[in-house]
Each structure stands twice: as structure tokens, then as C-alpha cells.
Amino acid sequence: MQTPDYIILTPTAPFKLYCLDRFLKNVISFHPKPKEIVFCTEPEMVPHISKWEEKLKKQGIKLVIFTLEPEILNQFPKPDIKKLTYSREHLRKYFINSPFEWALWLDSDIIPEPNVFRVLLKVALSEKYLVVSNEYPARLDKECIIRGMGCTLTHKAACMFARFMNTPFIWNGQEAGWHLIDDFWFFVMVSGADWYIKKSTGWNSCGKRVRAVSIWHLTGSDKFPDKFLKKDSHYNK
Question: What count of other Cβ atoms lies within 10 Å of the Cβ of residue 229?
Fold first, then answer.
């Protein structure tokens, strides 16, 4: 079967400028390469990303950049997880209106092996999952392993019914001081539709979590070295 075309969807922000060049150098090395890489970010990041346009074009990769609306930036002037939620929702809407069936969600501080799309697609097609998420180490926590959107392959069908949102956790009528964040809600919606999707299509919408490729998580901190998570050995086959 011919490998399908795909796009990369990347939310980013000024505090992640430290990893942008290394991230894009890695994307250029991907095989197969994406047809597009789509960013959603803040205006001050645009010149830094745009300087890569010609290099990406020479590799057959189209660069698309969206910026968050002024009202969102005014509401959250400092780094805030809610801006990430809005960015991912922008990217989701772009994807479902694009001609592509597959998208690789990749945070700009995540450096996976160059064959990441092919490996995650193999899992998706062989086990019939609409969402396959590769685990990665937390940026500043030695022990924590993240199972979020930072390196996740999605079929368009999953992004048609699941979306990104951010809500406070309410306990005894008051906010408990933390939020249920965007990738949590995405996976909840994906999991909730699993029975219906499987019954009508034979596919599983519920996200499959794997360690199919090795990943670096760049910290940008002298105090905390970059984190590495090795893939499971049976994916070497």
C-alpha cells in the first residue's frame, strides 16, 4: 500500500524559541516527509519560523503559520496553558478542512526519530486505531512519562468529533486550583466515541498509547538536561 500524505501540526510559543531550529532540522530529516507543517503561535514567533520557509520548500514541505487572536493574547499575556488549548483547536479546525487524512501532532520541543510517521501509521493501520500517541518524558520531571498530544498521530475522523478545551476542576462549588487541560478532553471524547466508531466502521477511536519511537524532550534549561525515552525493543523489528 502506498504511504498516505500527512501534515504536521505544531503549537508553539515564545518561551520555546530555544528549540525551534533543532525541531525544524529534525522535521526536514523525516522519511517520509510531511506535505505541510502548520504552526499556531504568537506574533513575535512568526519571523523566527518564517526564516525556514525556503529550506522547507526545497524539501517539498509547505509552511503554514497561524497566530492567536489579539483578544486571547490580551487575556493571557504571560505563558499560559489556555493559549496552548486555543492553538491546538486552531490546528484541529485547519486539519479537518484540509485534504489530508492523517496528521502528526508534534510539540516544538519534541524530537522523535525521523521515521515517526511511518512507525505510528503502521500501528494505526495494523490495529485499526484512529489515534496513536507515542509516550515521551516530562520536560522537568525525572520520573513522569507523558501520554498526551506532544507526539500523536490522528486520523481526520477522530478530529471531526473530538476537540480541545480547558475547564477548571470544580470541587464543592469552587475551583480546586487546577484545570482539566486540552489533551485530557481530546482523549476523553475519543474514548467516549469508541463503541460507536467500532460498531459502524470496525475501527477503534480510543487512543492507542505506545513507545514505538525513541524521543528527546528538549528542556532549554541548564539545570535540567534534555530528557530521553527509549522505544520498546519489539518496535525494532
Answer: 19
Q: Report the length, in residues, of the chain.
A: 237
CATH number listed for the domain at residues 6-232: 3.90.550.10
Decide: helix, strand or coil at residue 101.
coil
CA-based nearest residue to 20, from 59, 50, 57, 54: 50
Instruction: Give 193's contacts (C-beta < 8 A, 6+ positions apart).
Output: 161, 162, 205
135-146 residue pLDDT tens: 999 987 767 899
How far apart CA 224 and CA 237 sit, in angstroms, is 33
158: left (phi over 0), alpha (psi -120 to 50) or beta: alpha
* Opening angle at CA 216, ends 130 and 118, nearest 5: 35
The helix/strand/coil state of 131 is strand
Compute how many other C-beta atoms are within 10 angstroms of the C-beta atom of residue 141: 11
Cα–Cα dist 203/156, whole Å: 13
Distance CA 190, CA 117 (A): 20
**What is the DSSP secondary structure assignment for residue 114, as one 8-state letter?**
T
Average the pLDDT over 29-57 and give the result: 98
List 31's β-bridge partners, or say none.
none
DSSP helix/strand/coil, 171: strand
Give residue 222's pLDDT. Answer: 76
pLDDT of residue 142: 64
pLDDT band at 180 (very low <50, low <70, confident <90, very high): confident
Domain parsing of the chain, residue ranges: 6-232
**Runs of H (alpha helix) within 51-115:** 53-58, 70-75, 81-96
